[in-house]
Design brief:
The complex is a heterodimer of chains A (183) and B (356). Helix content of chain A is 34%, strand content 14%. The radius of gyration of chain A is 33 Å and the shape is rod-shaped. In chain B, 68% of the residues lie in helices and 0% in strands. Chain B is built from 14 helices and no strands. The chains are: A alpha+beta (183), B mainly alpha (356).
Chain lengths: 183, 356
């Protein structure tokens, strides 16, 4: 019989203990961070979306070769000797037109291996992490600064140069042949 | 109030319809408010924020939810018993809404001033049981049926301690009319039945501990009657999906939800009417001291709503404090503890009343 009353008392008492705890929690400030409006500051070395500063890119293709998932595609065209492409911020002379610099961020595994080999430190990871898209093709970022027409033009320029060189070579060879074969 | 509406409209039937629709105008916004409050209370007790986007602190969230539910497709399972399936939510809501007829909102408004008031409320909330069993059976889903059967077993068992405690108050008050019970506990809070009732004397003080015990028993068993945690095994979402309303969608689901929250308020209103003076203010009325007689019913309505909301808040508080009981524990609490205690309580109160 005494255990019966003890049970009753314990049942009631423990309920009140629990209620006291939840009452306290009712007034403790919440830990929620209201995400789209409030964002947690990210740590300094976070690895998120890649960015390429094309002003500094020399088109050396080292990042593309370092990428373990091959998400970077680079195409370059040699510049004409007459053209001046300027220098990068750490003083390297640019010699190539970068006609294509695509990063398929959907494939990217955020390993940061492309960042280290870059001689001009122009490819790096930013703290942007909200870049969802409805189509996968929208996740292919094109960093090349040249328009397609310009890229086409550069290619043509280069091809013309090659042809000219070949013609010159051919002409030289012909001239030599002529010289070597005395009548 | 009925006479007033009949006079205003000049038609007895129209007056009756208006009179019967007044609680609906009160209940639907209140249920929406309770759904919002439940979410906020649960969130803050878990150190979260709850809905924050729709309106300031998310107060429009439930309106948005109801709009969504209105647009939802009304799905009836292929193997369901269509007739019962459609009637069940209406019956459940009708049961909980009918209880509002006998609840005094203030001295000026009571749906129907019947002398059997509290008996009627207890009886009519039994209709909810039928509706729940109907919903569970007609869904043709084992979880629904299990939930419904648990619910019925629980509600019927817990009706006994509820009625016994109410009976002890009826012994003290000498009437079943809720308006008269509320009217007795007028003036100041020490006239409430929880503090031994309006009649002064030694017996009043002797009654107080038994009144507190009675209040606890009534509150616990009324929690079980509205299927709230810790007695929410009919809807145990971790075991039974959602219990008897698993198969319901759209507005039918909303009806169940609405009646659940309406029921919570009914139960709180009964607790406050029986023990805490119903619509009576704990300390006089501003209207009386200022001499503005029409202010008094408004103040009474305010106190009624405030007490109701307070007890609903305590229900929510308990919900987010306690874990769910097992079925055998549930039955043990009722049959082994609450019923014997309420019986002894009733007998003691009856004796005290006899020797007053």
């Amino acid at each position: 019989m005494s255990s019966y009353f003890k049970n009753t008392w314990e049942g009631l008492y423990t309920v009140f203990v629990g209620m006291k705890i939840t009452w306290k929690h009712l007034f403790t400030p919440s830990v929620t961070i209201q995400y789209p409006n409030v964002k947690v500051p990210l740590p300094e070395r976070v690895r998120n979306r890649l960015y390429v500063n094309m002003d500094d890119c020399i088109g050396c293709d080292q990042c593309a070769r370092a990428c373990p998932v091959s998400c970077i595609e680079i195409e370059t065209v040699k510049s004409l000797p007459t053209e001046n492409l300027g220098t990068t911020s750490n003083g390297k002379k640019k010699a190539l037109w970068v006609t294509k610099f695509d990063i398929d961020i959907a494939k990217c595994c955020y390993c940061q291996l492309c960042v280290f080999p870059c001689p001009t430190e122009c490819i790096y990871m930013t703290d942007v992490y909200e870049f969802s898209e409805f189509r996968r093709s929208d996740l292919v970022y094109k960093f090349a600064t040249l328009t397609e027409a310009e890229a086409e033009e550069k290619k043509l320029n280069f091809e013309n140069l090659q042809k000219e060189k070949e013609l010159q070579k051919a002409a030289q060879a012909a001239a030599q042949n002529n010289a070597q074969q005395p009548n | 109030m009925l006479e007033l509406f009949t006079e205003l409209t000049g038609d007895a039937l129209l007056g009756m319809i208006i009179n019967s629709l007044i609680p609906l105008v009160f209940v639907i916004p209140l249920a929406l408010f309770f759904v919002w409050l439940e979410r906020k209370v649960s969130a803050h007790m878990q150190d979260r924020l709850g809905p924050m986007i729709t309106g300031s602190h998310g107060w429009l969230q439930t309106f948005a939810d109801v709009l969504k539910l209105l647009q939802k497709e009304d799905i009836i399972p292929a193997d369901a018993d269509r007739k019962l399936f459609t009637i069940a939510p209406i019956l459940v809501f009708a049961g909980s809404y009918a209880a509002f007829a006998a609840i005094p909102f203030s001295s000026a408004y009571i749906g129907s001033e019947i002398d059997m008031g509290i008996f009627y409320v207890v009886a009519v909330s039994g209709l909810v049981v039928a509706g729940i069993l109907m919903a569970g059976w007609s869904s043709n889903n084992k979880y629904s049926l299990l939930g419904a059967m648990r619910s019925v077993a629980q509600i019927i068992s817990y009706e006994i301690p509820t009625v016994l405690v109410i009976l002890s108050i009826v012994v003290l008050a000498g009437t079943l009319n809720l308006l008269k019970i509320s009217e007795m506990q007028t003036a100041y809070f020490w006239n409430w039945f929880i503090f031994g009732g309006p009649e002064p004397g030694l017996i009043k003080f002797l009654l107080i501990p038994f009144m507190f015990a009675g209040f606890l028993i009534l509150y616990i068993s009324s929690l079980a009657e509205v299927n709230r945690t810790p007695f929410d095994i009919p809807e145990a979402e971790s075991e039974l999906v959602a219990g008897y309303h698993t198969e319901y969608s759209g507005m039918k689901f909303a009806m169940f939800f609405l009646s659940e929250y309406a029921n919570m308020f009914v139960v709180s209103a009964i607790v406050s009417a029986v023990f805490f003076g119903g619509y009576q203010s704990p300390f006089g009325y501003l209207g009386n001291s200022l001499g503005i007689s029409w202010l008094v019913p408004i103040e009474q309505f305010f106190w009624f709503t405030a007490k109701g909301i307070f007890f609903v808040f305590v229900q929510m508080w308990l919900r987010w404090t306690l874990p769910r009981l097992r079925v055998d524990q549930l039955m043990a609490v009722c049959w082994k503890y609450l019923i014997p205690y309420s019986f002894v309580n009733l007998i003691i109160i009856a004796f005290l009343e006899l020797y007053r």
